[in-house]
Amino acid sequence: MQVKLNVDQFNKRLSKVVQSWSNASNDSDYSSVADVGALFLSAGDPAGEDEPIRKGTAFQTWLLGYEFPSTFMLFQKDKLYILCSASKAKILAQIAGPNSHVPIEILAQARPKDPPTDALQRFLQAYTSHQRIGALTKEAHTGKLIDDWTAALNAADSKPEIVDMAPAVSSFMAVKDEEELKCHKTAANLTSTLLAHHVVVKLETILDREAQISHEMLASQIEARLGYGEGDNAKGPDMKVWSKGKGLTDVDWTSTEFCYTPIIQSQSSSTGFDLRPSAESTSDNMAHKGVFLLALGMRYKGYCANLGRSFIVDPSKEQEAIYALLLSLQAEILTKLTDGAVARDVYNHALSFVREKKPELEKHFVKNIGHVTGMEFRDSTYLLSAKNTRQLKRDMVLNLALGFQDLEEDGKKYALHLVDTVHVTGDDKAVCLTTGVKSIKDTMFFLNQEPEDNVKASKPAKKVRTTKQGANGNVSPVKNKTAGGKVLRNKTRGSAHEEQVQSAIARIAEHQRDLHERLQQEGLARFSEGGGGVGGKEGKGWKRFQSYKGEAALPKEVENLRVLVDRKAQTVILPMHGFAVPFHINTIKNVSKNDEGEFTYLRVNFQTPGQLAGKKEDTPFEDPDATFIRSITYRSPDGHRFDSISKQITDLKKEVNKREQQKKEMADVIEQDVLQEVKGRRPLRLPEVFVRPALDGKRLPGEVEIHQNGIRYQSPVSSQKIDVLFSNVKHLFFQPCEHELLVIVHVHLKAPIMIGKKKAHDVQFYREASDVQFDETGNRKRKYRYGDEDEIELEQQERKRRQMLNKEFKQFAEKIAEAATASTGDTLEPDIPFRELSFEGVPFRTNVRLQPTTECLVYLSDPPFLVVTLADIEIASLERVQFGLKQFDMVLIFKDFTKTPLHINSIPSAQLDDVKNWLDSVDIPLAEGPVNLNWGPIMKTINEDPYDFFQNGGWSFLGGAPGDEVRTIHFIVRIALLTLEINRAMPRLTQIPSPSLRLSLKRRRAPKAAKLKANMAILMPVKMKAVALTSMRIAKVTTGTSSSGRPPNPTRSEQRRVLVMSLKIQIAPRRKRLHQRLTGNPLPMGKPSAGDDFRLLTTISYICILP
């Protein structure tokens, strides 16, 4: 594919170079090239992958958009010379147009087999015509072109004086344009997402488990989030991490890379703490206490972003104070990074700030606090140091690196740093592009939660981070979350007191308000134009069906010009005007046959646009405005032949539809890689287990083996086995046999695999807890015992047997997790269901006990299994929540709007508070309403334009956020008026509407009513549905029908009466609060009159801007 250069961008940047060069005598930033006649930019063979990007390469890429090795450029104020190979000359010819700022002459060298050209000599002639030339003197290149150039230059009669132009080149690229800033922001977003959603979670797991892992290994695992491997074994970016970032849906992953290998340091690092960007992660195992330094840098389309963080386990008061000083220092320096600020003054201000707050730390302060970054990670020309007199300009991007080194605590040296990528916005303070995990509560880990007086009396508790990402990817407010007596989230030293002050209801309400606001903001960002969001998967695409490649491929039977069904080609051949015309079976809707007198009529109906055919209504067409044949009819006295043809067409249609359905079902099934068996030792085994889904044949127990890259279930029948690779494991569960008949190790897959002839998303290994071989009918001991001793002994043996089973299966699950983590680099932990949080419900057809885990909601006891990842849930809607009902329903809407929402019905109302507390504890927004919603049309409408959905309030129509009574009444009024429109448009209402709001109407006579009905079912909020039902009943009684069957046009007074009657139903219980809010006056004492109600409704009408 031809490389396309951005010509407009090149001309704009070339113009900037020439103009800045021409005014160099008046601008100190370009003084190094003020008196040179030309600028020489050379490039030899490509540098190695481990080498940092050179300034010359960055300058070339900045101009052209791509790196062109073995290419010379000679800039003159009136002309640009380019020396390159013939293939590069074809690409660079795009910029040599008439719109270029200066004339461009491209000198192409000859190919190896072609006769030589004078391109090099002509370039040398232009080069030697100048007395002084600016070049990057500190860069050395290699390659054939470099060797030829050196030889030609040595043979030249005169050589120009060389001046280092590096400071000027830095100034050319220092100020970023809009496109460059966009790349910087994307790189910063990638870096922040990786830190918050992977690195910190990984570090927390290591510290919590006290895992033995080296700094170098952790750095390589972080680096693998962008993909690893080559060829067929290559793995792409880990979207489980990147999907949690905002606005990363349209990232070009081929243009994304790390600026350097992540730097991890702890007190066990053999090299000590090093704050330089050139530091490396050592091969020593990480410590599990003390200070941890982390540095990450990512590059997007060549532009860099960098951040650094410090984490402390059990910090001392002094360490907390020093880190707090870093935070306040960064906030202070951001106010000084403005347009025109001098680098030296910024550093000196930082030093004086440290001297004022903590004078003893001045000697430990770093020698510089950052530098300009761009395509070149570290531009030393704009170093924020005590000696640099360069001025900062608006739209520069800096790497602000604050830190203290050679600090000492308990005889051990340590360092602290805080690094962020910042944007100089102008006169206002600079803005941090990299965000997250910066505050004290985010970076301080406390092993001991008890007050200091009780430290000796209590055993140190296991540490968990102070804040952690919620199950759906949100950062939840700090709170203590427990499940089954196990602490899932930790709390800081002050949060315990805050929780005691707040009641549970107030805390949930406040937390849900935050979650709904964040959900709305994330929805706008995800689906906005800037965020690159789209409404899930694209709609159905038009597909061309080809029956035959040519006329010669038609079967010979067509010569008879009779209707023919060709099953092999899936085609029906129809005679039309003396021609045999083939129609693919997918173009045919159906076929009908009827007898009239002596003849039999065969009618073939085709797929055409505009048919209200249910699921086929949205079938796409290449040109919907073309002329279509809707049907064609044949007549024949041979009824038996038409019977046969009709049956053949119908059977072929069913066969094709069945095949397409099977193909659609198997579309997501993957073919796994080959399992790499363990060599040199026996694999770890779990014997005597059964598998689900079951294999063909007799039900016999097999064994599970752990291999290098996966697990294998081996059936006693040697030919039957199931392989599951670690790379395809999404969740791993261990369910003990407490209160259960089975002990289970359950694997939930990322993509389904084929087991036998069926696809499976889950593979389960289990063993029955009761020993069927144990004789409970009696034994020798029984005749000597006449009490309950034997019963007690049997119960003890049963408990002991269950404990042994739990221990055996749990240990095997942990070994699977360890092997998977070592193989893939992703942390995999066996998740255990919390039975204490379980609740009953009907996710399928039977009532089951659903159990939450740390990351999922599961039912594992019997197929069909249910595994719902909490991070995939957008919002939970609780329906049929009414006083007096014994059960309610829960609908889980997924972040992927194309997935059908999951309905869990018939949950006991007694467990409503437990379900709400659990949903709130895992940071899932929830809403509740009195009736069920028709989610099919709702999701269809959302998928049509998700951005418009969030612009119009998003999920607020569910009523989940704290209610606004005025908005509630506004919805009531809208629905009441909508009801009147329905009654006008509909010819007849034959029955009272059911709670599902299905109206009995004739589509052909009332298309407008059908449209209004659909809109109402989609837009109606949960709380208002019952109101609409009541108002529609009132409207039916009020409007009536005329003798012609059509409803009369209701008068204005009738409309008002219907509106008042429907609104009074909802206003009655809220009269006092609404009257106070809408009128500003308290409600008069005594029974309200009709006039009071009407005045209140009139006020509501004006507030809601009624027509």
Automatic annotation (TrEMBL):
Give the primary localization class: nucleus
> Is Hydrolase one of the keywords UniProt gives this record?
no
Q: What positions does the domain Histone chaperone RTT106/FACT complex subunit SPT16-like middle occupy? A: 839-929
Compositional bias segments (type: Polar residues): 467-479
Looking up InterPro entries in the UniProt record yields: Creatin/AminoP/Spt16_N, Creatinase/aminopeptidase-like, FACT-SPT16_Nlobe, Fact-SPT16_PH, FACT_SPT16_M, Pept_M24, PH-like_dom_sf, RTT106/SPT16-like_middle_dom
**Region spans: Disordered:** 456-499
Location(s), subcellular: Nucleus; Chromosome
What SUPFAM superfamilies does UniProt report for this protein, alphabetically? Creatinase/aminopeptidase
| Span of domain FACT complex subunit SPT16 N-terminal lobe | 5-169
Q: Give coiled-coil spans as residue ranges.
A: 642-672
Q: Which Pfam families match?
A: FACT-Spt16_Nlob, Peptidase_M24, PH_SPT16, Rttp106-like_middle, SPT16
Give residue ranges for domain FACT complex subunit SPT16 middle. Answer: 563-713
Keywords linked to the UniProt accession: Chromosome, Coiled coil, DNA damage, DNA repair, DNA replication, Nucleus, Transcription, Transcription regulation
Question: What role does it play?
Answer: Component of the FACT complex, a general chromatin factor that acts to reorganize nucleosomes. The FACT complex is involved in multiple processes that require DNA as a template such as mRNA elongation, DNA replication and DNA repair. During transcription elongation the FACT complex acts as a histone chaperone that both destabilizes and restores nucleosomal structure.
UniProt subunit comment: Component of the FACT complex.
Q: Give the family, as the similarity comment puts it.
A: Belongs to the peptidase M24 family. SPT16 subfamily.
Record PANTHER family: CDC68 RELATED, FACT COMPLEX SUBUNIT SPT16
What is the recorded name of this protein?
A: FACT complex subunit
